[in-house]
Amino acid sequence: TIGSTKTVFYRGIFIVFPLLALLIFTDNVFSLPHIIFLIGLSFIGYLALASLYAGLVRGKVGVVISVADAALLVTVLISRVFLNESLSTTQFIAMGVLFVGVIFVSINFNDVRRSELFTTSSGIHFAFITCVLWGVYFSLLKIPVVAVGPTISSLIVESGQLLFAGIHMAFLGVPFAVPDKKIIWPLFFGGILAIGGSLFYNLGLSVAASSIIFALTLASPLIATIYSAIVYNERLRALQYVAIILIVAGVVALSLV
Do the beta carbons of residue 152 and residue 28 sit within 8 Å? Predict the structure, then answer.
């Protein structure tokens, strides 16, 4: 393992340079105020990632992720207040169903009962910080995406996070030595997949409400759960089967309304 900060740094390298090449083939608007705004958002996004990793190191993965995913509520609130986005009753219900499904698929309630949930050792306080920061980041990202375009928005945000990770590494005294091949290849493929995720997320923001797009991204634990069951033969709990149905229902409902 190379640590979370170094992971973000080298993952960022494999994201930024392909995005730079892609920038040549796309139409973009260069607006200094929006670029500065994107750099600020990238800092918020990096703080959210650092806080999430700190929580994962200390606590149960399912609990920490579920609390962090409550950023959906923050996103809905900020989008309503600052972007004047409104949701129908059906959309609210669909988002609620999806969110419950994410909690059920991510969390093992036996772990909750056995853990000291509200102590610093549980990592919950870091998850709450991530929750708030993600809510700010994912709601306000729509403003520059609409103004300057999805590609340059992805490039500035990812470049900023690469820069902040490098500064963080230097501050911590973490060496910049290139990881060995067993680590660098997963980082490379992860970075390439992240490019697609970032671009398609921003494309979604350019045509739909921030809260709906963020809600749809919360379905990602479903993919991880199914992948683990197929590749690693992990047995699904009964509650996870219910969660899969809820997540699919929520995603379908949000896509149709």
Answer: yes
